[in-house]
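DM from R.C. (forwarded with permission)

"hey, sorry to bug you on a friday — could you get me a structure for this? deadline for the figure draft is monday and I only need the backbone to look sensible"
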Amino acid sequence: MMTLTMKAFTGLLNVLVGLILLVFVPAWTFRYWQGWLFLAVFFGSSLVITLYLMKMDPSLLERRLSAGATAEKEKSQKIIQGFASMAFIAAILLPVLDHRFGWSRLAVYAVLAGDLLMLVGFVIVFIVFKVNTYTSGIIEVATGQTVISTGPYAVVRHPMYFGALVLFLGISPALGSWWGMVMLAPMTAVLVLRLLDEEKYLNRNLPGYVEYQVKVKYRLVPFIW
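My reply, with the result:
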């Protein structure tokens, strides 16, 4: 447990340092309240979820710590995750550069709305974690894993990706930029590619998933797709 705790907090520290560098180095200033609020929402939400999993579901936390292109077992997912990492960095970098060079300006209420969207995205992800203990950071099927069809899984087949989409939608306005919204298209494309590839894997390896797809029509966005 101590090893898991150290790994979790080391991962959080790495995320915090990486976000600080990604936000304030390109901005070339610490006088960027939108950036500070973005960090508080992103890191604070990540910390709360990590502490919850540490206490209530350490097995899920351990599964979540193994993530990213290098951790994926499927070659297709390694490629997709590589593009996802680049798109995520760009989704933060572009709004920060917008702030530095003054390409666009947002009202305070629009910035706060962006932070609220991020928070809602994290809440959706948190609910998914509470419902599905097998929500791994990579595409895999664990021993004893079963199909989850309750809670958010009764609405869409990939509710965590929906939560991530809501979170991504809030990043650019939270950082005070309209131009950063252009990154929503590639981020959505990456999510779609990942979930389509994941469904092929689950069809082959998770008993009952084919029947679940028939039962729950929408993949990502309720009543749309």
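R.C.: lifesaver. The chain has eight helices and no strands.
me: no worries. The mean pLDDT is 91.
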